[in-house]
Amino acid sequence: MSDKITKFLARKLSAKQRAVIDEVWTKILSGDLTGLDAKKLQGRDFLYRVRVGRIRIIYFNDNESIRMIHIGYRDEQTYRDV
Fold it and tell me: Are 44 and 58 spatial neighbours (Cβ–Cβ below 8 Å)?
C-alpha cells in the first residue's frame, strides 16, 4: 500500500471505521462483492470503486491481481486523481 493510503487509515479513521474498511477490503480480495456498493468506473479499464458511507475505496482488478489505488473521503478530487 502507498504511504497516502497508510496515513489515511492510521490518522483519519477511528478504530471502528478501520475495522469496517478492513472487512470490506477482505471481501474485495476474496471476490465476494455481495452487499457492497461496488461499481466500475466509467472510461477506466479495470478500475472499480466501493462506497462505504463517505469513504471511497478505488481499486484495480484485472482478474490476475487486485490493488488498492486510493482511499479517502468523497470530494471533488476523489476521481480526478486516479
Answer: no
d(CA 31, CA 25): 10
- Closest C-alpha to 82, from 62, 66, 68: 68
| 73, β-bridge pairs | 55
* pLDDT tens track for 8-65: 999 999 999 999 999 999 999 999 999 999 999 999 999 999 999 999 999 999 989 9
Q: How far is CA 60 from CA 12, 24, 47, in A?
A: 23, 15, 5
